[in-house]
């Protein structure tokens, strides 16, 4: 379970200060799906970075199962991220010189998994996203939707508890976008993941059980169950 309390993030550049997050309180139960929406610059990616332990808040705490990501050591945070949190970005962020299989294997290196097992698990993860025939292709030899599937396999190969996605379909055409969303929803259900998804796509938000809207660093949560008649 995530429990965010009074999370604020200020970015300072020279004399200018940006208040990207202003006192956010949020609870996300295990296995829940939360969609985050809001205008550009509202603080969506910043919030996801706090939840993913990629950056620390200026104030407040970000507890995952009672551990405050804001105050543990950098080494512990890196370890916790490698074990528990899978992250997918809009720009895929694959390593261009590595094959699909090698890209997926990179997630297992910090966990000390032996090379033979790494190869096997990466191949399995790629099969599970429908890319079993593309193990030795490098990113330029894959379509956009296929590259995002590699990124999804890389996020999930370590069997994380948490999956975070920042506009994962933002660079894809409509048909591919639907395929990727269906894949992510299926994986969320199948693995019982805690799934936090940033998206501009209102058709996705309409289907989501819970939607958080963030504007000028402030968050409002709508529990959509109560609107189902
Ligand atoms: N590293 C940084 N240094 C300074 N300001 C930053 C930094 N990262 C983000 N910001 C500022 O913080 C605010 C929130 O940015 P954020 O990236 O979280 O927005 P967003 O909701 O994800 O927007 P988008 O929909 O365009 O991705 C913006 O005003 C942005 O300019
Ligand atoms: Mg963003």
UniProtKB/TrEMBL annotation:
Highest taxon listed in the record's lineage: Bacteria
Protein name: ABC transporter ATP-binding protein
The organism's taxonomic lineage, starting at the top: Bacteria, Bacillati, Actinomycetota, Actinomycetes, Kitasatosporales
GO CC terms: membrane protein complex; plasma membrane
Family annotation (SMART domains): AAA
Gene3D superfamilies reported for this sequence: P-loop containing nucleotide triphosphate hydrolases
Gene Ontology molecular-function annotations: ATP binding; ATP hydrolysis activity; transmembrane transporter activity
Domain named ABC transporter: residues: 2-228
InterPro entries in alphabetical order: AAA+_ATPase, ABC_transporter-like_ATP-bd, ABC_transporter-like_CS, ABC_transpr_LolD-like, MacB-like_ATP-bd, P-loop_NTPase
Keywords (A to Z) from UniProt: ATP-binding, Nucleotide-binding, Transport
């Amino acid at each position: 379970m995530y429990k965010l309390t009074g999370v604020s993030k200020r970015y300072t550049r020279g004399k200018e200060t940006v208040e990207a997050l202003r006192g956010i309180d949020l609870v996300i139960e295990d296995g829940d799906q939360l969609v985050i929406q809001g205008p550009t610059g509202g603080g969506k990616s910043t919030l996801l970075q706090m939840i993913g332990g990629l950056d620390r808040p200026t104030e407040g705490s970000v507890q995952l199962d009672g551990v405050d990501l804001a105050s543990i050591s950098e080494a512990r945070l890196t370890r916790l991220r490698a074990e528990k949190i899978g992250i997918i970005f809009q720009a895929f962020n694959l390593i261009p010189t590595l094959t699909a299989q090698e890209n997926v294997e990179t997630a297992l290196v910090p966990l000390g998994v032996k090379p033979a097992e790494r190869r096997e698990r990466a191949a399995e993860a790629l099969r599970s996203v429908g890319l079993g025939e593309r193990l030795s292709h490098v990113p330029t030899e894959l379509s956009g939707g296929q590259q995002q599937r590699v990124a999804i396999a890389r996020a999930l190969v370590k069997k994380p508890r948490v999956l975070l996605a920042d506009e994962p379909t933002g660079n894809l055409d409509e048909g591919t976008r639907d395929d990727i969303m269906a894949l992510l929803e299926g994986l969320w259900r199948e693995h019982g993941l805690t799934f936090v998804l940033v998206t501009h796509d209102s058709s996705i938000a309409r289907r989501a059980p819970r939607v958080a809207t963030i504007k000028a660093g402030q968050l409002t949560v709508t529990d959509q169950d109560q609107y189902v008649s």
